[in-house]
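## retry 2 of 3
previous attempt timed out at serialization; input unchanged, resubmitting
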Amino acid sequence: MENHKKSPNILIINPDEMRWDTMGHMGNPAAQTPNLDAFASTEAVSFSHAYCQNPVCVPSRCSFFTGLYPHVHGHRTMSYLLHPGDDTLFSELKRAGYYVWMNDRNDLFAGQEPGWMEENADEIHYASKGNSPGPIKELRGTRGSKDYYSHYEGCLGLDSEGRNVNRDDETVEAATRRILNPVDERPLCMFLGLMWPHVPYGCEEPYFSAVDRSKLSPRIHASQCSGKPQMETLLREYIGMNDYTEEDWNQLRGVYLGMCQKIDAQFGKIMQALKDAGIYDNTLVLFMSDHGDYAGDFDLVEKAQNCFEDCLTRVPFLVKPPKEDGVDPGISPALVELVDLYATVMDYAGVTPSHTHYGRSLRPVLEERSRSHRDAVFCEGGRMPGETHCDEYHIDGPLGTPESFLYWPKKKAQSNDLAHGRGIMMRERRYKYISRLTESDELYDLIEDPGETTNRINDPGLKKVAARMQTEMLKWLQATSDVVPYRYDSRFNPRMMWEMVRHHVPEKKEAQVRQMIAEGATLPAIMRVCDE
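## retry succeeded, writing output
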């Protein structure tokens, strides 16, 4: 009897806005991530140089769940999501026989399309707010105070049972129940789109006090920098955090790491559920964030849609293949992109993609960590001047976003055509080049300047480096500028085709030819039948 390999289960855990350096095994002495650290040590490969394809949620996710770069189909804005007709990792796996489970926090499917998200899944968990007490102390204050736009909430309260149950907790519990109680025998594809450590910066005990602030790595100060993009200057002006002391910044950074610690604890719960259900060994596990967070670097908070420092674009990416496929666990320095997630999942699931894509399966690196993967990685963001339908500020109405709104600084900065201009980042092992349409390009030597503080685009000594990377970026754009659908279109409707061939069709073959036309046969195929 032929032995058929059982399709692996697939588990994708996607925290939002988690930097690559928030994990202990990436060298952060203040990080508290024991579950992820142990996972990377013995079970998975953790990629130290994984990059997202856009530094905000929606375009990043539209990219890694389709294997396409944001520019290919215009998925480069927070307000243009996937629509019916767009195949995704989930729709393809569902057609291939997977039971697809996801939660509602996915930032992927156009919400105004009735039933569209449901088409991509067999089950969707909709989380409520949960029992999530707010901050112990209200810190925002009035307009002009240092925390008005800081997103900092500090320590969150606990309920009467000593808990703070947020939407992520509810989602993890729901996922655990489904893992332990499968609906049927189909292999499981499960996606958990978690909210944390996305702003606001706030967490409850014991996470709030768990991070030793004295162990935090040095922060990158704006005063250390030169040649940086105008977007960052505007953001600093609008958020008005000039009165923040270093102690203030360290508190914010400590809370951010505390939020990552809770993500680590939730990750541990899900891994235990897989083991309790007896399916851990046959599960492909992928853990990655969609983008990072300034978290105090460059005197900024949150993120910017057309800035490309490593704190925003370099993300955690850990992958554990099914046990029988083998893995060389530990840290890999290979340059990889989140767009590779699509190719990797389809490879291990044994499913043929339904469309052209640009991902590369990580299987070779998972089997041997010393292997390289890409010579360069890319990230893109921003918009064209006048492209206000891509600007979150303008879509809030003719008067723009009210200044009381927490995201007003970012939306106001994005209303500036020049500051929010399109940019593309290319990152090699040593150099990072950023091409900008509306302001000066950027070039960083990441060995001499790992913090990306000094833009050397005008350095004569790096002129050849800049020219070479510009050429390579052009080639990348040419190679990824569009895709041709796998579906063939006929140039002729059935009546046109019949009129073209009917004089060549023998009477005895008329019925056969008409049937061929109805089924979409090409002209050469029809003529071959007529000539036989």
